[in-house]
Specification:
Order of helices and strands: HHHHHHHHEEEEHEEEEHHEEEEE
Oligomer: single chain
Strand content: 15-25%
Shape: globular
Structural class: alpha+beta
Helix content: 40-55%
Distance between the termini: 74 Å
Number of domains: 3
Number of helices: 11
Largest sheet: 13 strands, mixed
Number of strands: 13
């Protein structure tokens, strides 16, 4: 009888285990399908935005008045920005699409510079029109390559979620695989893309800016110690960052108990973490946005970044990206930017970008505003409701900085940030804050 009962118990446990395994398998399969659909949507949207940008360029070139040209150039800025956002969400290593990212950034940035010129009553000269034509040619080529890539991926029945897993395990092998589908080939053709010199944040002349980093030159061994002290996954130096604004060491390692490849960059001068990237698979959400912000704040304090305040947060399903800006005596300095990526399953820091801070941060002598807050308020329309006000230093398109009053305002159902120069009262910038379930996007 006893033996019979034991057999029943064993059978029960086997059945129960099978049910659990089957349930987990179905959950993973559903999540796999969800990931693939998300990536498919991102890719489809990327094609659409690039095609729209191409059309905007064509319309801008044939517009016979400045009003129409400004409209098309503003549309171009938006579509280029959104195309860049979609591109960076695909499971492709950043280094492999670096030139394409620069192209999309400069495409929107150059359009803004030209729109501002038109707003000032100036006509675009022959060289600037030729540049628009050249940008249109590259946008057309990128659009065609993306469409062909989409067709090839469909014919090969490539699953984006599978590509994501491959990129987690070995990005180099993944990139070799992607060469079959031409996206990397397009990146190679971008080597002939010309440098654009204009008044904008992605202008080629700003690449020559020297970071305001002070400190001794560190060795490879010291770089490894800094990375291993900060992050749990051991890494080693595999190369150097050269021909970049911040020279440094490139490090790689492997995520614990998996094949996931983690990578980091440490500055050669002063030994600062430039970026860190851990593309591991992320489990079930347990950490909400508020908790993620607190985790990111504590992490920055632990690695020596004090007086950083969270500005905007974006939630991407399984992780959050929090933007931080430096706070100097109540003045928010947006130039000194740090981004932290937090996994939503356990709160682990899986991404860090400090380049903005390392390039721009320095001791500033912030002068007293020449106009009062009330005087600045008078520059804002009475139809707009002002919610909050604070002083902020914002970067200009040409790489300079301006002390402003930052007004968070409401008009209708939309929220805007309006920046008024704290010295002459001129309107410097207006940004739209798009809030949804994924966080806040500022455009």
């Amino acid at each position: 009888m006893r033996k019979y009962i034991q057999i029943i118990i064993v059978l029960f446990l086997v059945i129960l285990t099978s049910i659990v395994i089957y349930h987990q398998y179905n959950e993973r399969k559903e999540y796999h399908t969800y990931l693939d659909s998300q990536f498919q949507r991102q890719f489809y949207d990327l094609i659409g935005y690039v095609e729209n940008a191409q059309v905007d360029l064509a319309k801008a070139m044939v517009a016979n008045n400045s009003k129409d040209m400004i409209k098309y150039l503003n549309d171009l800025n938006f579509h280029s920005y959104m195309a860049h956002e979609k591109l960076t969400q695909l499971p492709i290593e950043h280094d492999s699409i670096y030139k394409t990212e620069i192209f999309l950034n400069q495409l929107g940035d150059y359009s803004t510079a030209m729109a501002n010129k038109s707003l000032d009553g100036e006509e675009l000269d022959e060289k600037e029109m030729d540049t628009l034509a050249e940008l249109h040619s590259y946008a057309n080529e990128l659009s065609q390559e993306l469409i062909e890539l989409h067709d090839k991926l469909s014919k090969e029945n490539i699953n984006f979620a599978t590509l994501k897993r491959q990129s987690n395990r070995d990005l180099s092998k993944f990139n070799e695989e992607m060469k079959k589908f031409d996206l990397i080939n397009f990146e190679e053709r971008m080597q002939d893309y010309p440098e654009l010199i204009y008044d904008g944040p992605f202008s080629a002349h700003l690449k020559k800016i020297k970071p305001k980093l002070n400190g001794k030159i560190i060795s490879e061994d010291e770089a490894v110690k800094i990375a291993n002290k900060t992050f749990k996954n051991p890494v080693k130096v595999v190369g150097k960052l050269e021909n970049t604004i911040i020279p440094g060491y490139y490090l790689q390692g492997t995520e614990d108990n998996s094949d996931t490849r983690v990578s980091a960059a440490i500055s050669e001068r002063a030994g600062k973490i430039i970026w860190y990237f851990n593309p591991r698979e992320i489990g079930e959400d347990r950490i909400d946005s508020e908790k993620s912000i607190k985790i990111a704040e504590e992490f920055l304090k632990d690695i020596g970044y004090d007086n950083m305040i969270p500005t905007y947060t974006m939630n991407h399903g399984d992780h959050s990206i929090i933007n931080f800006a430096y706070n100097e005596n109540g003045v928010i300095i947006y130039s000194d930017l740090i981004k932290v990526k937090v996994a939503s399953d356990n709160g682990e820091i899986i991404g860090l970008g400090t380049e903005g801070f390392l390039i721009n941060h320095h001791k500033r002598d912030i002068d007293k505003p020449q106009i009062t807050e009330n005087e600045a308020r008078q520059r804002i329309s009475d139809t707009i409701k002002i919610k909050n006000t604070r002083l902020a230093i914002i970067p200009t398109a040409g790489g300079k900085e301006v002390l402003c009053y930052e007004f968070e305002t409401e008009f209708g159902n939309d929220t805007y940030l309006i920046y008024i120069d704290a010295n002459n009262g001129k309107e410097v910038e207006i940004l739209l804050m798009v809030r949804d379930d994924e966080g806040t996007l500022v455009i």
